[in-house]
Write a structure and sequence with these properties.
Strand content of chain A: 25-35%
Radius of gyration of chain A: 18 Å
Number of helices of chain A: 7
Number of strands of chain A: 13
Helix content of chain A: 10-25%
CATH architecture of chain A: 3-Layer(bba) Sandwich
Structural class of chain A: alpha/beta
CATH topology of chain A: Glucose Oxidase, domain 1
Largest sheet of chain A: 9 strands, mixed
Distance between the termini of chain A: 38 Å
Largest interface: A-B, 75 and 75 residues
Number of domains of chain A: 1
Strand order of the largest sheet of chain A: 1-13-11-5-7-9-10-4-12
Shape of chain A: globular
Oligomer: homodimer
CATH class of chain A: Alpha Beta
């Protein structure tokens, strides 16, 4: 499943996991929420909306993938003409198209996708736009400084929010530029260190990975997911939602033990 | 794929499709919305909520199915111990677990799941409770009279709503009683005839089929889906939401050409 060098890289990263897990533990001790924090039934504030924006790409068999391999095959089972109704079967790797990374993707003792509480799947959405920088440099990363700049403008990140990186990369989904020989934007580990001290429940990127394409150690995956938070990869249309004020609904898979899976992501504005 | 007698039944039903399509055409001509009706960007009214309720069952490989065959196999691809991260592959029939029936499931010229406009996936939720009747009679059906009774109590069905049948059947999902040798509740065709004259975009059931288990002609499927509306089967927890006032978000699959698929259904209350 892994491209050359990938297994070795994740093993090197694994040996450094202690540091990140410690960071996460410190954050938890400091009172930051994780998915397992007991939740109130109701949100802190009533939420309002008057339109919906689809943040999901259509997935087709050759949708670009991290490992550059086809991850979806579709088998026709019945047809309207022959059988009276159309049905199909998917053979699909969980991390395909617009999809979730559940905490269990990188941690055996954290939530699989089906076990994430629904209250954590409906979250205030903070969109951080780094598209100008990404247009000039495909290796751009969303940093702690970007989060602080967002907060200077919009106030503190909302409680239990999702922080989304808008790098403008969604527009490349149908071209080679989307994978771009593994040069695409992602979160910088220092942004994750900051977010672990906040009440963010999830992060989202409009690229193929929470870590930027050139990451060799997957620090973002190894610090964020084992802290009991989720990630969404390959979201679309972040340019159509405001940088603050929307609510995102994560239509993640509820298949037992899922490490993640295709996810319908809808913003309510 | 089909149980004995099923193909024959759907073919008989197909030969009667003319009637139902005509009904749908009349409804459309009368001005009722279908999914393809041009939509305003914003909802008619601002919507509010303060909590989320998950209307989705967890799906496991032996989740009960209409055809009584296993429809989900899960293949482990990588593990945290060996590879540094957990990933899996699903081999899944589209109509498994809590899932969508897209219009294309029963009509070649109507929307596949990926083509349903997002505005139709966020809908006011009307819950009609027939659980007392269903407890006494597993062949109970939600009728036009039930809809009229709901409207007498709650006012006209909201514009572009989803009408959900709460038969209490979700509680049986882990037992034989869920499929119950094809004795379970569903919508009655006369309810669909009425709904086709209203602005409902979708219907939902807490059982294995939009039609009741004993249906021999699948009239509900053949009249509702070709009219460009969607259905959701095997929803859960309808008893936890009010009969009016909630919004349902349909986290349906956005896989190209999908006849339906596993769907995260979340009510905002």
């Amino acid at each position: 499943m892994c491209v050359p060098g990938c297994h070795e890289a994740v093993h090197r990263a694994l040996s450094r996991r202690g540091f990140f897990l410690k960071t996460a533990a410190v954050a938890a001790a400091a009172g930051a929420a994780s998915l397992s924090t007991p939740l109130p039934r109701a949100f802190a504030q009533e939420r309002k909306f008057s339109k919906a924006v689809d943040l999901t790409h259509t997935t087709w068999p050759e949708f670009p993938t991290f490992f550059n391999k086809v991850q979806l095959e579709i088998e026709n089972l019945t047809t309207l003409e022959k059988d009276g109704f159309n049905t199909r079967k998917w053979h699909i790797m969980e991390h395909t198209g617009t999809h979730m990374d559940a905490p269990y993707h990188f941690s055996n003792d954290k939530e699989s996708a089906d076990r994430i509480p629904v209250e954590s799947l409906v979250a205030p959405l903070a969109v951080i736009n780094i598209s100008d920088r990404a247009a000039k440099d495909p290796d751009a990363q969303l940093t702690a400084e970007d989060i602080k700049a967002w907060e200077s403008k919009n106030g503190a990140l909302p409680d239990r929010c999702c922080v989304a990186m808008n790098s403008g990369w969604d527009q490349h989904v149908k071209t080679e530029k989307f994978r771009n020989d593994m040069h695409f934007p992602g979160f910088h580990p220092d942004a994750i260190e900051l977010l672990l001290t906040r009440n963010a429940v999830g992060i989202a990127v409009d690229t193929l990975s929470l870590d930027y394409g050139q990451s060799k150690d997957f620090k973002v995956h190894y610090s964020w997911l084992p802290a009991g938070r989720w990630g969404i990869e390959a979201v679309a249309n972040l340019g159509q939602v405001p940088e603050t004020g929307a609510t995102v609904v994560i239509g993640g898979p509820k298949i037992e033990g899922a490490t993640g899976g295709p996810t319908r992501v809808i913003a309510l504005v």
